[in-house]
Amino acid sequence: MASPHLIVTVRHLWNRPRRMTKPPEDAKPRELRRIFGANVRRFRQEQRYSQREIAAIAGVSQKHIAKIETTGASAGLDVVEDIARALGKTPAQMLTKPRTSRDE
User: Fold this and answer.
1) Is the pTM of this model over 0.70?
2) What does the H/E/C string look like for the chain?
3) For residues 58 and 94, is the Cβ–Cβ distance under 8 A?
4) Mean pLDDT of 9-27
5) How far apart (Å, rounded) are the C-alpha atoms in residues 91 and 47?
6) Which domains does the chain have, with CATH numbers?
7) Nearest to 50 by CA among 74, 35, 71, 69
């Protein structure tokens, strides 16, 4: 009969979360990430804030703001809310695709 220690160890290994593989570097960001990044940049520039200033107000790093704007890096809901508040917008506004003259 197997020892209790071995059984616990096997159960532990079986139940642990599986590692997700990172997407390739050339993978396109998901649509909401891209929209959020574009809106962060657009609203920030409209208000003449630097990335560093918005980062300080929102409580995130300037590097994270840069990644969000340029690569569509992932941002948690708390960060979306913090950045939206720093820009005087709602999270819904930050995640809404801007209307263009072609949309009308």
Assistant:
1) no
2) CCCHHHHHHHHHHHHCCCCCCCCCCCCCCCHHHHHHHHHHHHHHHHCCCCHHHHHHHHCCCHHHHHHHHHHCCCCCHHHHHHHHHHCCCCHHHHCCCCCCHHHC
3) no
4) 57
5) 17
6) 29-94 (1.10.260.40)
7) 69
* Residue entry with tokens 């997700």: 20
- Determine the Cα–Cα distance for residues 51 and 40; give it in Å rounded to an integer: 9
Name the one residue in this structure whose structure tokens are 């962060």. 40
Token pair for residue 30?
Answer: 């998901």
pLDDT in tens, 31-81: 889 999 999 999 999 999 999 999 999 999 999 999 999 987 889 999 999
Token output for 14: 């079986």
For the chain, give the number of residues.
104
The residue type at 73: A
